[in-house]
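Team,

Forwarding the record for the chain on the shared tracking sheet. I've put the sequence and predicted structure together so nobody has to dig through attachments.
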Amino acid sequence: MKTNQDLAQKNNIIRAAVMGANDGILSVSGIVIGVAGATTSSFAIFIAGFAGALAGTVSMAMGEYVSVHSENDAQKKAILRQKSALQNNYHEEFDFVKERYMQQGISKELALTATTELMNQDPLGTTIKERYGFTQHHEISAVSAAISSMIAFPLGSLLPMLAMTLLPVHIRIMATGIAVLIALGITGFMAAHLSGADKQKATIRNIMAGVFTMIITYLIGSLIGA
């Protein structure tokens, strides 16, 4: 049980870090490239990027905290609901679990045997897993997710900010764009790996989102600065 909890917490921290870094790269690159379309002042670009990174860090951390906390609250409510269901409609819950096993291709006799054994051992945990898809006592830390995101977001935002302010004016937009797309490809791949999604599609989707963001913000900046 302890090992499973530790693994869940570790995966949650990594997920929050990857998503935080990805958002930091994407959000701040959009800001600095947009401002670069309106002005060549490195100081103005840096200040805009810094303000965006600061606001994004707080927003991302609070968003992670609220999101994970809400998920934990929803699981607590599901547990209370299931306790009541077992007290009032035990046979209905028993039949539900048995039907779930039969839908997975298990024979009626084997499904009955498995359900009887599991319901005798842990009726609450068994029905929670089958009805809601989560395991009891595996609550994720909202604080850990928030801290992980709060650290990762500004680290991700450093790449576009430094590239845009330190590189020569005539190449910085193109060089920043290339660096950002490479970074987005890496974070998109990592996010897909953690979630079990299609890595190629997720990576391409993340890169295309970055391309779209940078093009739109640069054009808007150019129009404003014209």
